[in-house]
Amino acid sequence: MNRFSEKDWKLFRSKIVDWQEAYMEKLNQEYVTILTGPGNWIP
């Protein structure tokens, strides 16, 4: 038995790209903060 309708899948597919982009942007900002912050980082 299919728990998700075709409408559900269409909605998911329309949203997933934006969710992925927002998540990657969040990670990028965290990396920038880590790499530009104080610490024992040696180039």
Summarize, please.
This protein has 43 residues and is an all-alpha fold. Helices cover 72% and strands 0% of the residues. The protein has one helix spanning 6-36.
How do the helices and strands line up, and which of them pair or pack?
Layout: H1 6-36
Which structural class best describes the helix and strand composition?
mainly alpha
The Rg value, from CA coordinates, equals 18 Å
The shape, in one word, is rod-shaped
Mean of all residue-level pLDDT scores: 88
Q: Identify low-pLDDT runs.
A: none
Q: What is the count of helical runs?
A: 1
Describe the largest sheet. Answer: none
**In sequence order, what are the helices and strands, one letter per element?**
H
Strand content: under 5%
Instruction: Specify the helix fraction band.
Output: over 70%
How would you portray this structure in words?
- The chain is mainly alpha-helical and 43 residues long.
- The protein is built from 1 helix and no strands.
- The longest helix has 31 residues.
- The mean pLDDT is 88.
Descriptive tags:
43 residues, mainly alpha, 1 helix, 72% helix, rod-shaped
